[in-house]
Specification:
Helix 6 (about 265-275) packs antiparallel against helix 8. This protein has 8 helices and 16 strands. With about 325 residues, it is an alpha+beta fold. The chain folds into 3 domains: about 5-75, no CATH class; about 90-250, Jelly Rolls; about 255-329, Phage tail protein beta-alpha-beta fold (3-Layer(bab) Sandwich). It has helices at about 5-10, 15-25, 35-55, 60-75, 250, 265-275, 285-290, 300-310; strands spanning about 90-95, 115, 120, 125-130, 135-140, 145-150, 150-165, 175, 180-195, 200-215, 215-220, 225-230, 235-240, 280, 315-320, 325-329. The longest helix is centred in the first third of the chain and has 19 residues, at about 35-55.
Amino acid sequence: MSQERRSQSSAPDGEAERALKQLFAHAKPRLQPPEADAEEIRRAVYAQWDAASGRRVFLRRAGLAAAASVVLAFALWLGFAPSPGDAPVLARVERVDGLIVGADGEPLVIGSVLAAGGTLTTGTGQLGLRLASGGSLRIGAQSRVVLTTADAAELLAGALYFDSEDARAGVDFTVTTSLGSVRDVGTQFLARLDGAAGRFDVGVRSGRIELTSGGETGAAGVGERLVVTQDGASIRRDQIATFGGEWEWAERVAPPFDTNGRTIGEFLTWFAAQSGRSVVFASPAAERLARMEITGSINFPLLQELSAVLAIADLTYSLEGERVVISTR
């Protein structure tokens, strides 16, 4: 690397400085890092700009905007998420699919923090949240949701998915609607409210839930669904598959899997939890290969991510109902 190149990397040029100032000028005040870390974070952000923009002298406007977006995401990842003032943080955005505007009118990005109150409206997008109290909350398209506390949300319309991730022992999460409320007991569940049809239903992938409506309470376990309707009829129980179909939208905004130093087998355990499927090996050889470590970062839709991870060890898979069978090529 030339001396000129090193100089550019260590101190941002005027173009990068101006672009970044314009970029952050539209954001709300951020939580400030410790004084000792400020310069290190600044260098990291500009290094990311350097990598994203290629430091070419002749940048097209669209290319500059794309590089700026990368820097913004990187800065948010470092902790420069919008601050809700004195209100406690209830959740942080982990995944965004499509354009979703927060209660403050600002587009949500990975790292945005959410406080109590205000309605999250997804439109055609989907959203994955990391709750401050633990667990994953995902909001489907055409939904309206209000985060009320660290352990509760109000579903005004549409669908949400909650996964306790075994990290909330002794802590319940409650979803309230106009037709009833549901409380999890170490659960993965899918709740949907259809106001036009006057219907609220909750399907259980793992664990148990309790649903209360009109003074009546019902419980459901794995593979069961409870339904209440606006006409005041009793809670109805039916069956629901724990994989595919109705659950697929939630898989698209599943939390990212941390590949650093992890094995293929660990990824398969995570995949089983996210997909509701059981993983089996077709042979001892396939099981041995699953002990291989994953290198690099992989972030695709769930089944594509499975294919990419298995390819590392020359493995493949087939779907047999609720089972995912892993075999050698």
